[in-house]
Design a protein that fits this description.
The complex is a heterodimer. Chain A is of the alpha/beta class. Chain A has a single domain, classed as ATP synthase, F1 complex, gamma subunit (Pyruvate Kinase, Chain: A, domain 1). Chain A has 5 helices and 5 strands, in the order H-E-H-E-H-H-E-E-E-H. Chain A has a 4-stranded mixed β-sheet, sandwiched between helices. The longest helix of chain A is centred in the C-terminal third of the chain and has 77 residues. Chain A is elongated. By secondary structure, chain B is α+β, with helices and mostly antiparallel strands. Chain B has 2 domains: 84 residues, ATP Synthase, domain 1 (Sandwich), CATH 2.60.15.10; 52 residues, Single alpha-helices involved in coiled-coils or other helix-helix interfaces (Up-down Bundle), CATH 1.20.5. Helix content of chain B is 34%, strand content 45%. Chain B contains 2 helices and 7 strands; from the N terminus they run βββββββαα. Chain B has a 5-stranded mixed β-barrel with strand order 1-2-5-6-7. In chain B, helix 1 packs antiparallel against helix 2. The radius of gyration of chain B is 16 Å and the shape is globular. Chain B starts with a strand and ends with a helix. The chains are: A alpha/beta, B alpha+beta. The interface between A and B is medium-sized, with 27 and 24 residues.
Chain lengths: 288, 141
């Protein structure tokens, strides 16, 4: 059995850990709030953008002909992995990595080129001997729109020049604070969203400038929007996962502290009992 | 009287979501106005001022850059990279940014030059929008 001094040390250690995890939980909660607000703020933009693209493709069926929507036989696939810069966020990073490894395993017939946002994913695949393609730097926890735009431009260039025949994004969809799912989404070639309404009677529409130019400037923006939204959702997921993980860690630490306190008290009681019985038996021995 | 529903969204927020009498948009092919019962239209926008005539007759200017407008069934949706209502424009910040951009223009290389030029255009636009709003207010009184 552990001595009282050992138990006291362990209680102290657990207390210190709990203090740190509690602080991390608080920081994550604050960041989560901000990240969540940004997701919510971006949602109307994403929806309207999708509507406009849908409107445009409906009004102009030959929008399919744009180079960014072109389906080619896939020889090389670009995979953008969105992970976190730091750990201690539960299964957030491992979920993303597992999903990517699955992709690597099933994609033997095509060449996969990995691109990583967030150091955790980058270092995992670098350690395993994968070569990572350079992409513009994006801050994993708090991406700005212009960063997303630079990234989207880079992906678009590689797609247009034929370096990549399709681009997948592996990111974490934010369902709620406690539930996030790693998903794979195909962002290139662009599959224009189909308008939900059935009025394909093609309302005659004025285009300014002409439809082809319009599609040419709208589709890249649509791509940026999707990349941006994936980044935002990932950020919210990261902070959510970290908050949950740190909250669980704090709970575990306090559970451990109470268990240790109990055994400390038991040990103390045992020591006292032992001492008393020693005194009593000593006194008894003197009497006789 | 028929009105339009105007919605202006940017990546980080909904700037405006309201009923209006008319709106004037900075199209890439030139500025154009939209009144109720306009034909369906999709247009790309450039850096410029959006002039909104509110339901109560108030005129408001909004500095916008880059994006698209979608007009359909008396709904005008503007998707812009940035949009700032004249009331939200911080003139001190705008002037500082203009000075910075001008300094960059003077010294920077070719790439920095075009970038600075673009920044300058955007901030000049904000400045102009703020002034237009002031003139509008002066006209009222």
């Amino acid at each position: 059995m552990a001595t009282m001094r050992q138990i006291r040390t362990r209680i102290k250690v657990a207390g210190n850990i709990a203090q740190i995890t509690r602080a991390m939980k608080m920081v994550a909660a604050a960041r989560l709030k901000r990240a969540q607000d940004r997701v919510i703020a971006a949602r109307p933009f994403v929806e309207r953008m999708t509507d406009v693209v849908a409107d445009l493709t409906r009004a102009m069926p030959d929008a399919q002909a744009h180079p960014l929507t072109e389906e080619r036989p896939v020889r090389t696939t670009g995979v953008v992995i969105i992970s976190a810069d730091r750990g201690l966020c539960g299964s957030y990073n491992s979920g993303i990595i597992r999903r990517t490894v699955e992709l690597l395993d099933e994609g033997s017939h095509r060449e996969l080129r990995l691109m990583a946002i967030g150091r955790k994913g980058a270092s995992f695949f670098a350690r395993r001997g994968h070569k990572l393609d350079d992409i513009p730097q994006v801050s994993a926890g708090a991406a700005a729109y212009h960063e997303a735009s630079a990234l989207a431009d880079c992906l678009r260039e590689r797609f247009e020049s034929g370096v990549l025949d399709e681009v997948l994004v592996v990111y974490t969809r934010f369902a709620s604070v406690i539930s996030q799912h790693p998903v794979v989404e195909r962002v290139l070639p662009i599959q224009p969203p189909v308008a939900s309404e059935a009025d394909t009677a093609s309302t005659r529409c004025i285009f300014e400038p002409d439809a082809a130019t319009l599609v040419g400037s709208l589709l890249p923006r649509y791509l940026t929007t999707r990349v941006y939204y994936a980044l935002l959702e990932s950020a919210a997921s990261e902070h959510g996962a970290r908050m949950t993980a740190m909250s669980a860690a704090t709970d575990n630490a306090s559970k451990m502290i109470s268990a240790l306190t109990l055994s400390l008290n038991r040990a103390r009681q045992a020591a006292i009992t032992k001492e008393i019985s020693e005194i009593v038996s000593g006194a008894e021995a003197l009497k006789s | 009287m028929a009105t339009l529903h105007l919605e202006i969204v940017t990546p980080d927020r909904v700037v405006l979501d309201t009923r209006v009498r008319s709106v004037r948009l900075p199209g890439t092919m030139g500025s154009f106005g939209v009144l109720p019962n306009h034909a369906p239209l999709i247009a790309s926008l450039t850096t410029g001022a959006i002039k909104v005539e509110h339901d109560n007759g108030d005129i408001e200017y909004i500095a916008a850059s880059g994006g698209f407008a979608d007009v359909r069934d008396n709904r005008v949706t503007v998707i812009a990279d940035t949009a700032e209502r004249s009331a939200d424009i911080d003139l001190a910040r705008v002037r500082a940014a203009i000075e910075r951009a001008q300094a960059q223009l003077a010294e920077g290389g070719a790439e920095a030059y075009t970038q600075a030029q673009e920044t300058l255009r955007r901030y000049m636009n904000r400045l102009k929008v703020a002034q237009q709003q002031e003139e509008e207010a002066a006209r009222r009184h």
